[in-house]
Structure to design on (270 residues):
């Protein structure tokens, strides 16, 4: 009902373009309006078979991907732009000299690999801080695979954190461990880490190779063993390079400019 109302109002207000951030939900209604509808594919938009089936019913509509890796889920869609998510650099403090710990920041779910981060910490002897929520559906995973290792010293679980604590944790880390088990269309935490100068060690899945410049702003690895071997190499990296990559590719200004170009493309079509 809300979608139908929004589309109706778009007609009444004589809008030039409607930008859809609700994934596939409004797409069946688009033939009812003359206003062009541009859809940004967010989250797991193309990771599930049902979602891909629905998008493929509307391949003629214009789409924006948030990474080129995301397009692999439905390469036949009509992409008018790729626009990376951007952050406000003012929210992240660059830190030249970090602390002496590794960091996992995110949802404590199997797909995010917090248990792999613990193993990296154990094998390298470098303390690990874990921060993030435990979803109800992953409570058993947390109790069996994470909590037994938490001792407040070598492995510390902090829980959920707000913006200030997030900034402090990211800036103080030797490296962010982003050892995801499944492809993600965009991992914002990697950009946030690099904004503070902290390099990322991430598995070569989804958008990780697009965000992390291997050997410059972190290391893109194939598996747990690769992550373990990458940790001592972090000392070779210049933290300023990580910050610079964010400045050049992942700011709010870059995102806004990308969407303006996408709008111009759609509005310039016959």
């Amino acid at each position: 009902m809300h979608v139908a109302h929004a589309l109706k109002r778009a007609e009444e207000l004589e809008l030039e373009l409607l930008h859809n951030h609700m994934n596939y939900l409004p797409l069946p209604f688009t033939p009812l309006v003359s206003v062009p509808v541009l859809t940004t594919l967010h989250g797991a938009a193309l990771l599930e078979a049902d979602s891909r089936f629905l998008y493929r019913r509307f391949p003629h509509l214009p789409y924006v991907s948030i990474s080129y890796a995301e397009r692999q889920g439905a390469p036949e869609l009509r992409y008018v732009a790729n626009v990376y998510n951007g952050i406000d650099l003012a929210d992240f403090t660059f830190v030249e000299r970090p602390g002496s710990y590794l960091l996992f920041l995110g949802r404590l779910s199997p797909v995010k690999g917090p248990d792999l981060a613990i193993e990296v910490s154990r094998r390298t002897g470098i303390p690990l801080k874990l921060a993030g929520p435990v979803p109800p559906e992953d409570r058993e995973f947390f109790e069996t695979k994470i909590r037994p290792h938490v001792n407040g010293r070598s492995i510390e679980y902090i829980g959920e954190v707000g913006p200030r604590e997030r900034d402090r944790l990211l800036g103080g880390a030797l490296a962010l461990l982003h050892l995801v088990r499944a492809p993600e269309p965009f991992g914002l935490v990697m950009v946030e880490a690099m904004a503070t100068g902290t390099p990322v060690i991430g598995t070569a899945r989804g958008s990780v190779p697009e965000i992390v410049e291997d050997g410059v702003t972190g290391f893109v690895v194939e598996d747990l063993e690769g992550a373990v071997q990458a940790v001592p190499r972090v000392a070779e990296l210049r933290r300023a390079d990580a910050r610079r990559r964010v400045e050049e590719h992942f700011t709010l200004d870059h995102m806004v400019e990308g969407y303006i170009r996408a709008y111009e493309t759609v509005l310039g079509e016959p």
